[in-house]
Each structure stands twice: as C-alpha cells, then as structure tokens.
Amino acid sequence: MMEQYVLGYSAWGRPVFCEQSGTGRRRVLFCAAFHGSEWITGAVLQRFLTSFRRRPDWQAQATLWAVPWVNPDGAALAMGLLPTWSPQYIVSRAIGGSDPGFPFTWKANGRGVDLNLNYPADWEGAVRVKSPHGPAPMNWPGPFPLSEPESRLMAELAERVRPDVLVTLHAQGEEIYWQYRGFEPPEAQALGEAMARRSGYLLTEVPPASSRAGYKDWFLQSFRRPAYTVECGLGVNPLPLCQLDGICARVLPLLETALFGENAGDDCNFSLPMV
Ligand SMILES: [Zn+2]
User: Fold this and answer.
1) Catalytic residue among 19, 38, 148, 231, which?
2) Dihedrals phi, psi of 78, to nearest 5 degrees
3) Residue 105 needs a FRET pair 20 to 30 A away by CA distance; which of 63, 98, 99, 205 works?
4) Domain boundaries, the chain
5) What's 134's DSSP letter?
6) Ligand 1: distance of its center to the CA of 57 in Å?
7) What is the pLDDT of residues 49-90, one digit of tens each?
8) Ligand 1: centre distance to CA 187 (Å)
9) Ligand 1 mean position to 91 CA, how many Å?
10) Is 256 a catalytic residue?
11) Does residue 255 contact residue 48 with C-beta atoms inside 8 Å?
12) How far apart are CA 37 and CA 238, in angstroms?
C-alpha cells in the first residue's frame, strides 16, 4: 500500500507532501528539510522512499509516514529556484539580504521563522537564548509556539500517527541527538547506538544552545517515545549535491535500523537504489 497526500500548505502556499506506505505493525515517521539550506536531506529521504517502495518485506513489517520536504519554501529559496523578481524573493531579501550567502544559506521558512525552534518545548527558553527577535534567515523561534503552518502540520501528523519512532534529518555534523531533559524512554539509547553503529555517526548530546523548542524535543516531551535528530554530512551548508551518495551510504542503513528497531541486525545489507 502506498499513498501520497498533501498534509497542508506552507506559508507561501506550497504543498507539504506526505507519503504513507507499508502495512506493518511498527509505525515510523521520518521527515527532512526542516531547514531550507539543508535541502540535501530531502533528497536523502526521497532515496530511502525509493528503496522502501521496492521492498515488500519491509512494507510487511512497518508502516512508514515520510515527509521529505517539511519546509518547501525555505528549500526552494535556498536552492536558488525563486526568480529574483518574485515577491517572495524580494520579501526574503529584505529580511536576509545582508547575509553574503543569501539566498543559499537561508534556513527559515517563508516568514523568517526557524521551524525547528517553533515547538512548545521550552520555546520561551529558545527566545531567550537565540538572538534575532524578528524575521530572520535563521534562529528566530517565531512570535509564539506553533505559529507556522509547517510546524503545525508536523505536530498534527505526529498526534494522528503516534509513531513508535521519529527520525528527523538535518545537515551538519554527522551526529545523532536522542535526548530532551529526561523525556527520552530508556530503550531510546540502545536504538540510537544501533543507528550510530550502522552509520558511523556519533550518538551524542545536543549543543546547549539548540537543546529546546525543536520537533524532536516536543515529540519526546509529548509522547516519550524514541526520537532522533540526525545531522547528516559535514562541511558548510548548503552541502553540495556531490555529497549525496556518500551521505546516503551512511544514512540509509541508519534509517533502515530505525525502521525495524535495534534488533534489525547488523548483517542486513542495504543496497543503494539505482536512481
Ligand atoms: Zn537543521
């Protein structure tokens, strides 16, 4: 069973797609491209979906909800897809045009809100710690928690699906974050360690400045089920497309482990899809 549908629309009216596939008992939610300049993670998750569609054995064991492009406006802007004469480009240039990397370094959504600081998990703390106090290319937590359509869509999806595990893909650092103030369940560490083994990424603690108001933080606080932020790749965002194969070689096995749990076994061979 495979179904694609529109969860809702972004601040600039782009559809946010979800693909639901599989019929298995284990319920899994994967998402990517919360941050515009980390669009490479959307491509990573699309590749995983290509594999999942071809594996009836996986589909029998798990039901997967995947949202590869949580922030389609920010991704379009950071990919350089918006014409410079478009109203959206002009508005965002007024917000972030002083950044020499504009528009390619843009992380926020179309309204200048950092979606991964927009969740009600010590959102007030994020406002205190982060410096911009208004629309910005990155790091503004927004006017209030869940102020943005994209963050609300993802919260609603998690509440509807109530997945057994959540993985959200970001770009930068080759690390896996799994904790939020003791809300992580005890079994989350073992699964995180298995994901670290399969990928070679480091299972570690979140840097203090970023340890609140994220989607995974809110998910852990709300559901107390395993949730992971995976920081794919290394370098300077936006990571170049030539890193895609290398990142997939490490992150696709990691996602496979998350799909089946820590006992999936290190012997299962992940083959890269020919796309
Ligand atoms: Zn990110």
Assistant:
1) 231
2) -70, -25
3) 205
4) 2-264
5) S
6) 32
7) 999 999 999 999 999 999 999 999 999 999 999 999 999 999
8) 25
9) 22
10) no
11) yes
12) 5
- Distance (Å) from CA 34 to ligand 1 centroid: 6
pLDDT in tens, 164-202: 999 999 998 999 999 999 999 999 999 999 999 999 999
Quote the ligand 1 centre to 47 CA distance (angstroms). Answer: 19
What residues form DSSP beta bridges with 9?
Answer: 15
Q: Are strands 15-21 and 2-9 parallel, antiparallel or unpaired?
A: antiparallel
User: CA 137: distance to chain centroid?
Assistant: 18
CATH code of the domain occupying 2-264: 3.40.630.10
Span 130-158, pLDDT tens digits: 888 899 999 999 999 999 999 999 999 99
Complete DSSP assignment for 191-217? HHHHHHHHH-PEEEPPPGGGSSSSHHH
Distance CA 141, CA 133 (A): 8
Ligand 1 centroid, distance to 217 Cα (angstroms): 14
Q: Which tokens sit at 242?
A: 């030539």
Neighbours of ion ligand 1 (CB under 5 A): 35, 38, 170
> How much is the pTM?
0.94
